[in-house]
Amino acid sequence: MTEWFRDERPCTTIAVDDRAVQYGDGLFETVAIRDGEPRLWNYHVERLQTGAVRLGLGAPDESRLRSALTAALGQARAVGSRSVAKIVFTAGQGPRGYRRIDSAETTILTGISQARMPPDTCYRDGVELRLCRTRLALQPQLAGMKTLNRLEQVLARNEWRDESIFEGLTLDTDGRLICGTMSNVFLFTGQGLVTPAITRCGVSGVMRRHVLTLLDSAGIECSVRDVAMEELWSSDGVFISNSQFGVLPARRCGKHSWQPQERFEQLASMVQMSGIEEGPA
Question: How far is CA 277 from the centre of its chain?
Fold first, then answer.
């Protein structure tokens, strides 16, 4: 169950003429809350603010976002050592029609719920992936952002009901590997590490950014570029990243499988040492 708050006050409804409802006009962030504190908060705020400017909404003040989150955490019953805060930033209420009115006031909604973590075996033995049939449309204007329109991800995630499959990988309409339905993907190759560029579509995750920053600080090169499907199948190993679970190794995708990688264990150790507590015991 998620407890919702609107600008620091509990709420159970949203106006039907809010543009989030009518057009998916807005953005969201899903923030890991650990021991009452938001993790990678600056990255979340920066992505939300950057996305808001790109959508023409104007960047919300960090103080407003922080105040709304603090109030929600202080009032929610679901807060534990591991919780999740979903921050929804909408274009506000307005009349019918795609054009926004100048006087519309943006809305901040904050939902607090308990975190659901993968079992320890996922970190130790890896997770099973699948390749989704749903393709991501090319739209550079929206690439990288977490807009409220997630229909491609909804379609992709509803392609399977098999509980043994943890995540689905998605391609763009030109057949390039982009990301998972809820994660970003990294490949181990003979030359090093590779992760798909998020310039035409897909979401640029905050954990992806954190991993790239850690790698750069350690002097480990990770190429950010277009990735063909053949590179996935020929890679030495694969792992996925997400703001909630950190990093997880992949053991299989369809008929292709990968063995546990010493290089992943080293990377996972780096991630844990940076304050991301999830990982193999």
Answer: 17
Domains of the chain: 3-114 (3.30.470.10), 120-273 (3.20.10.10)
Q: What is the pLDDT along the chain (281 residues), one digit of tens a residue?
A: 899 999 889 999 999 999 999 999 999 999 999 999 999 999 999 999 999 999 999 999 999 999 999 999 999 986 778 999 999 999 999 999 999 988 789 999 999 999 999 999 999 999 999 999 999 999 999 999 999 999 999 999 999 999 999 999 999 999 999 999 999 999 999 878 999 999 999 999 999 999 999 999 999 999 999 999 999 999 999 999 999 999 999 999 999 999 877 889 999 999 999 999 887 65
Give rounded-to-5 percent helix, strand, coil for the chain. 25, 35, 40
Nearest to 165 by CA among 131, 120, 140: 131
- Give strand ranges (E) for the chain: 3-6, 9-11, 26-34, 37-38, 82-90, 107-114, 127-131, 165-171, 176-180, 184-189, 192-196, 222-225, 227-228, 237-242, 246-253, 256-257
**Cβ proximity of 42 and 146 under 8 Å:** no
Q: Are 152 and 170 in contact (CB under 8 A)?
A: yes
Distance of CA 166 to the CA centre of its chain: 15
CB within 8 A of 181, min separation 6: which ones?
A: 132, 153, 156, 157, 167, 168, 170
Name the 3-class secondary structure at 36. coil
231 within 8 A of 187, measured Cβ to Cβ: yes
Residues whose CB falls within 8 Å of the CB of residue 182, separated by 6 or more in sequence, listed in order = 153, 157, 167, 242
d(CA 230, CA 215): 24
Residue 32 near residue 40, CB atoms below 8 Å: yes
